[in-house]
Amino acid sequence: MAILVMNQFRNTAVLLMILALIGLLAQRKPAKETLSGVLKVGIGFMIFNIGGGHVGTIAANFATLFQTAFGVQGTVLAVEPATALAMDVYGFEISMIMGLGFIFGLVIAKLTPLKSIFLTGQHYLFFAAVIGLIFISNGMPTWVTVIFGSLVLGFAGAGLPKLAQKYTDELTGNAGVALGHFNLIFYWFSGVIGSVIGGKNWQAKKEKAANRELPDFFSVFRDFVFSVAFFMIILFYIATIAAVLSGHMDVVQEMAGNDLWFLYPLIQGLQFAAGMSVLIYGVRQFIAELTAAFVAISEKYIPGSMPAVDVPVFFQYAPTMVPVGFITSFIGGLTATFAMAAMGSPVVLLPAAGIAFFSGGTMGVFGSIRGGLKGAIIASFLGGILLTALPLVLFPAFSELGITDAGFPQIDYNIIGILLDKILKLFRDRKSTRL
User: Fold this and answer.
1) What is the pLDDT of residues 135-174, one digit of tens each?
2) Residue 406 gets which letter from DSSP?
3) What stretch of H or E contains 328?
4) In whole angstroms, what is the distance from residue 88 CA to residue 94 CA?
5) Global pTM?
């Protein structure tokens, strides 16, 4: 009986509901609100799992087509399905890192000058997955993974927004908000790039970039679902046609099943976008409830703290730079992909439209603050290269744990993750030497 009870704590949905319950009880919420919040967390996570499973299947289909056509493993860098894959096996560790990481972040904000309260909970979840996988891949025991992984996440959530705060204040006119999205190292660097390009006349360039009119064609890319569908359809057609031309029509026909083979890429791209919509709806629902369960505590007990919010909040300050950054970032990602193929990499990583939209669009906005249109283009292009190239370093470790059909592209995940991996390997090697 005791073992059965302990196993339930490894059920991720149950564990997340318990975390939400603790936060709501700590705020002395009425029974009705507590029950509603706890159930919404459970339902939201199950919706997330359904979407993740669907997207994971489509991603696996694409990987099969790509490998058949080009003879190398092709992986789309989509963080949501990668997290779903990780949660399916290591849900306990990742959930605990996320929950304790948020609490540690509040403690750090209370006790140090790092006053950001990271409210974009889904990125806490994604970063928790990366940190957990790195600890696990290095053979660390569960308690070490959870405690030290939570500390890393807590410091990242409280401290990284401060890195880009100077440019965030310039963009928003000192609106009193921080940016809560784990590409902050490069958002800061985007501002630096803009500063170099803009020189002394950066204020005029910022105003011009914010008000610049773009061709009507670009406006369609402001729709996230359309962008994901559009680029995934293109990628599926490239892989499918290449497979047919290389003499593998039988594989394509088998995968298409009852669908016409030349319509199969269209259907798969649309299904991928539909699955992403379900997945994102689910993660936003359970993360919103979890965040609400703890945010009131931070507002009450951490005076002088600053909310770190998600990137769409900042799109309004330079809306025309969002599609510029998105498309340029995607082109930068494809440049990295072609470089991997040209250098004979056994794994070829492909940029995901969703990441290019939110991350690349934000890079464009921050690059334009002081550098105008040129700053937006250069920052997002370089950022797109790093979003696609950096995950190649950690991919072997993650693939050993079964995370092969999707990946974690955000720059903070990979820079901090690579450093953490090297530290843990050094610690593991020294321990082995002593033995």
Assistant:
1) 999 999 999 999 999 999 999 999 999 999 999 998 888 8
2) B
3) helix 321-342
4) 10
5) 0.79
